[in-house]
Amino acid sequence: MNYSGWKNYHAHIDKGFLIPPNSYQDEPAPIRAEWTRNAKVLLSKEEIKVAASLALEKMHKYGTTYVRTHVDVDPLFELRAVEALLEVQQEWKDRLVLDLVAFNQEGFERFPETEVLLREAIKMGVNGVGGHTSMDQDGKEHIDKIIGIAEEGNLDWIEFHTDETGRADDFNLPYLAKVTTERELKHKVTAIHCCSLANVDDKVALDTIEAVAKSGMTVTTCPTAIATRSLTRVKELAKAGVPIQLGSDNLRDYFNPLGSGNMLQYGQLLAYVSRFYELKEIEQIISWLNAEPENERVKQQLSQLAIHLSYPIKTNTDLLAEAPAPQLIEAVR
């Protein structure tokens, strides 16, 4: 079986692969978040590059040709991670396409200076801007500010960690769909996780899914998040026509000590958790992993890679069940 390469639509390669003596410990999330903040203060640009390259090596080994990673921008990391990842982007351009999304992980309330730093990151050449709807008291205001900053820079991607708490009272997805529709942003906007959608009333969920489908935005699910929260209603979103993407999310950091970078394994995990077991459902997951983003720049860059993956397997069911590394990766010229 032959494929053009897998797509990883959400990662955090700026802060993965913990550098000794740092190591994962299974403490509550707020404690691990504080450890991450402390690490961001200390990490040098070169250390960030080493960690990011380790992550990309794993992904490339398993046939990934496109990676969209969030890159933290705040007074802790300042712009070191953006500087590091821009260099990594160039160093890897002949092997995979790496898109960078300057990310407000900590919120505007904790660090108001982040607004200025995001604008600087845009000037440096990132491909998108991202926010986190649960990090500020007013998620709607956070959404508006991030979109406003992104539109100033005419960026390709506007992305949000959306309703990641999973609480029904922390539900900003309907507003994000509304704004996306009003501003006609369509596939530029991606809602990541959308955990609260799994826990709201079914009627509310159905109305929201219809609004998301109408908006033209995409939804990215990261199956490893099941360790701490509900996955979103992937099947219902897909049935409504919402474009679905998959991401590896964190890789060997304070939030996830595991992760191979093999997108087939993440697809397999989604199949287990959400019961994508029928042949058409398995083929749907494979199509999501293989699908290129709706962006002419990225499509052109991917075509220049001309990557060809070959597997000694006869069916997509076997491919997802075994999640092997490609037998070979070769350029087709």
Written overview of the protein:
Helix content is about 40%, strand content about 15%. The chain has about 325 residues and is of the alpha/beta class. It has one domain (about 1-330): Metal-dependent hydrolases (TIM Barrel, Alpha-Beta Barrel), CATH 3.20.20.140. An eight-stranded parallel β-sheet has the order 2-3-4-5-6-7-8-9. Strands 1-10-11 form a three-stranded antiparallel β-sheet. Helix 6 (about 175-180) packs parallel to helix 7, helix 9 runs antiparallel to helix 10 (about 280-290) and helix 9 crosses helix 12. It starts with a strand and ends with a strand.
List the keywords.
333 residues; alpha/beta; TIM Barrel; eight-stranded parallel beta sheet; three-stranded antiparallel beta sheet; 12 helices; 42% helix; hydrolase
What's this model, at a glance?
The chain has 333 residues and is of the alpha/beta class. 42% of the residues lie in helices and 17% in strands. Helix 4 links the parallel strand 4 (97-103) and strand 5 (128-132).
